[in-house]
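S.,

Sequence below, as promised.
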Amino acid sequence: MILLLLGSVRTHLEASTISPELSDHGHRSPQTQTQRGNKKSLFPMSTAKFQRVVLGKLVDLIEEVKRIGRGVENEGLERQVPTLRNNKELDELEGKLQNAEQRALLVHLLAKVGGKNIKDATNKIMDRLFTNRLMATFNMKGGGHKKKRAFRETEVYAVVKEAVIRSDQSATESAVDRAMADHLKQAPGRSGGGGF
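The prediction came back faster than expected:
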């Protein structure tokens, strides 16, 4: 929108017939006064030309900022969301999540992963955070004959749930819990899951 507006302003300024002798306020421009007095000019170009140059530079700057922003956003998500491979890395992340800013940042980044529905968003977020081998060591409540760790008792559980709910406004806590439980249950059978 801004680019269209600035482009039309640039076109308008190039096509306009502003008198080089008078500025916007009806005063003689410094260049005109110096031409008559043969003095050095404080402003080497007319007001109209100056406006065209400045608006052109502004359009170029806006385009460059947008280009850089797109690249940073795509690269940042990959680098900032860790893929946890073992319980030690999970425990380190759990410690970092005690900081409210770190927690909010991770929720924000994971919500951007998104998905076409609640289950898809949950699966994609969990796959971004964990390897299948690590997920295979969890279930929602813990225990069982394989002595699995309780995912529901981790800080990451709450972060994943919040991210899914933020990414899909129709998501409920119980629907996200079911999707997480199912994804953890299927982890041993997926590539790298280890068959726990």
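The chain has two domains: 2-77, 85-189.

Coffee later?
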